[in-house]
Amino acid sequence: METIIQVNDVWRSYDEGRIEVLKGVDLLVEAGETLALVGSSGCGKSTLLNVIAGLELPQEGRVTVAGRGVFDEVSRRELLRHTVGFVFQLHHLMPGLTLEENLLVPAVAVGMSASAARDRVRELAEETGLLQRLDRRVRELSGGERQRGALCRALMNRPRVLLADEPTGALDERNREAVFELLMKLVAERGLTLVMATHDVDLASRCSRVVRMRDGRVEE
Ligand SMILES: Nc1ncnc2c1ncn2[C@@H]1O[C@H](COP(=O)(O)OP(=O)(O)OP(=O)(O)O)[C@@H](O)[C@H]1O
After folding, report:
1. How far away, in angstroms, is 64 Cα from ligand 1 center?
2. Alpha-carbon dihedral of residues 150, 207, 54, 178, nearest 10 degrees?
3. 158: which residues sit within 8 A by CB, 6+ positions away?
4. How far from the centroid of its chain's Cα atoms is residue 15's Cα?
5. How many domains, in total, are found in the chain?
6. CATH code at 205?
7. Under 8 Å between Cβ of 164 and 197
8. Segments in the chain below pLDDT 50
9. Ligand 1 centroid vs 71 CA: distance in angstroms?
10. Is the ipTM of this complex over 0.90?
11. Does 17 sit in the ligand 1 pocket, CB within 6 Å?
12. What positions does the domain ABC transporter occupy (predicted)?
């Protein structure tokens, strides 16, 4: 077994220490696990995901993803370009660009050739049922389509780890189920490691492992 994510004694606070969120978090995630992160609103699930992705730095402690420490600008940028894909609750696609243009952004960032990038976009769009939507502006897409588009974007550069922050939280029940099933299928087919923050007990129970955040730490 390979431990792909290691979080050791991580501390993160805001407002000059007045808001303490992560208070010595330890978490080991094995490659191929699908892990649900649950806990009450405001307990720090998003903060922990952001710290693992290198989107935020902890004040203390250490994060390692796929054998590499996440600490400075360079390691954080490399991590997001090559190793980790991130899906947010609200897609975070650029509304005025077409879906295809949005999906090309991460490919351009890693210097993929234009033809390889377009092939990759079509491959992912086909898998997610979005082929007919590629030339639509994101603002013209439905909520479910946007979220499927966000999944494609996260997978563009073939990450090993997918981090998802309430990926279906903004969707109605029917779309929630469809997007979650698609997410799990894409993860399983690629053997990815998934860490997903969720409030939804049903979705959490369909992951291989559930950890709860409480009082700034995690418990199984
Ligand atoms: N940039 C920030 N500045 C100040 N406080 C912040 C910041 N980001 C998060 N917080 C606070 O940190 C705490 C944890 O927030 P976080 O978003 O990680 O919780 P969460 O468990 O993901 O919540 P939810 O389930 O509601 O999304 C909250 O009290 C939040 O208000």
Report:
1. 22
2. 10
3. 190
4. 25
5. 1
6. 3.40.50.300
7. yes
8. none
9. 21
10. yes
11. no
12. 5-220
